[in-house]
Amino acid sequence: MGKVIRTKVKDLLKLTPGQEVLAKGWVRTKRGNKNVAFIALNDGSTINNIQVVADVAGFDEETLKRITTGACIAVRGDLVESLGGGQSVEIQARSIEIYGEADPNTYPLQKKGHTLEFLRTIAHLRPRTNTFGAVLRIRHAMAFAIHKYFNDKGFVYLHTPIITASDCEGAGEMFQVTTLDLNNPPRLENGGIDYAQDFFGRQTSLTVSGQLEGELGAMALGEIYTFGPTFRAENSNTPRHLAEFWMIEPEMAFYEIEDNMDLAEDFIKSLVRYALENCMDDLKFLNDMFDKELIARLESVVKTEFVRLTYTEGIRILENSGEKFEFPVGWGVDLQSEHERYLVEKHFGRPVIMTDYPKDIKAFYMKQNEDGKTVRGMDVLFPKIGEIIGGSERESSLEKLEARINELGMSHETLEWYLDTRRFGSAPHSGFGLGFERLLLFVTGMGNIRDVIPFPRTPKNAEF
Ligand code: ATP
Ligand code: MN
Q1: CA 98–ligand 1 middle distance (angstroms)
Q2: Strand partners, 96
């Protein structure tokens, strides 16, 4: 008998019956009677299981007893047409090797229907559930689709630093990186910490965005994107915020705000389309289990044109809505998720790209409008999520940028390298940041951002 190599379950289910096969995976369930045992086997390659049929007479009783939910086994046998409903082929087992048992008294994933909250406490095992298998396969497919999208368009994948000495947004939500002895740090005469003695000879943190370095790339390579981890020490315990998340940040020379909006809209639509074309088994599962409108919503987003409106128009709609918001609206306020969702879900019923925000609620680098009050920022707002993308056309004039930096009382010192892009060969350019997990919330229909990343980091939680 020739050597039989392992076939993944996904491929087994497409094979024609009548051949010898070898399958390896984890037991989802075992049932049966005195004569025959049915084992549902899953190896993570698909949401679907392969059914293994073992005639009790042909196996040692002890071996069959050790095959319980969660155990890992290798099955050799014949692929045959399945008589039972639900699957087209099954394996008639000839031999079964047990790689690892899973004690039924202690294996936590015995029964179906564990809550998502409980599964978070066993994040090391939850990839073995149907739900997290589906989410993690979709997460992979989306990461691949993102690289494919930009590669097809000729964008260069730029790796921006994770440890940084600049604070992109000027906000105090950064995690410090230090090798100083926190119990006894070196001190300056004035009592402050002497960062000159720290590892990098200055104060450093984990990045909150790769944008500033991304702009340097765009001013040389034309069109770049970053796709990497991002860290924010914001103490917001919401279903949409993580302390460690992944962000995609394209940055393009010669793009004005309209080009930026066109790219953002086309980008998201093409990712959703990719999911519909490549992840249907997993989407169907999530649609049936969690969100009956998921697939319909994805299909509709691919087809609809996003609304484009200015912040000022948006505020007017909210003020005239007659709706009672928890946070009152008025020109100048930063929109809350409830406002964004009102516009997207109730007023327009489709995604919205909002532009031209008051300069005081946006970052220093955004292009200033003629009115002296607003900047060319753009947020893409999505149903169920609110902000999924934040971006802008960047201020390309050195003079205006410096004036804004002074106005905000920011230090030039750590930004000199950034200002060089405006000193030498400055050009109109734009970019945006898409939160990868926010995209995944939309594509999977999951309600909590902790459930679309393998190991979530949130305030008071860095387990696993
Ligand atoms: P929000 O107002 O929702 O906190 P933000 O204005 O801080 O977002 P940006 O700084 O513009 O967001 O970041 C770009 C994108 O990164 C956002 O549109 C969002 O998709 C994502 N994002 C921002 N903060 C987080 C976070 N804490 N966890 C997950 N994704 C995030
Ligand atoms: Mn934020």
Answers
A1: 46
A2: 75
The DSSP result for 3-16, as a single string, is PPPB--HHHHTTSP
Q: Is the pLDDT of residue 13 over 60?
A: yes
The residue whose CA is least distant from atom 7 of ligand 1 is 390
pLDDT at 170 over 80: no
Residue nearest to atom 6 of ligand 1 (CA): 390
How far apart, in Å, do the first and last CA atoms of the chain sit? 44
pLDDT of residue 419: 96
Radius of gyration, CA atoms only, the chain: 27
- Which atom belonging to ligand 1 lies closest to the Cα atom of 232? 27
d(Cα 234, Cα 255) in Å, to the nearest integer? Answer: 31
Long-range contacts from 130-134, C-beta under 8 angstroms, 24+ separation: 130/47, 130/285, 130/289, 131/285, 131/286, 131/289, 131/290, 131/451, 132/451, 133/42, 133/44, 133/47, 133/282, 134/47, 134/282, 134/283, 134/285, 134/286, 134/444
Whether this prediction's pTM lies above 0.90 is answered by: yes
Residue 249 in contact with ligand 1 by CB distance below 6 A: no
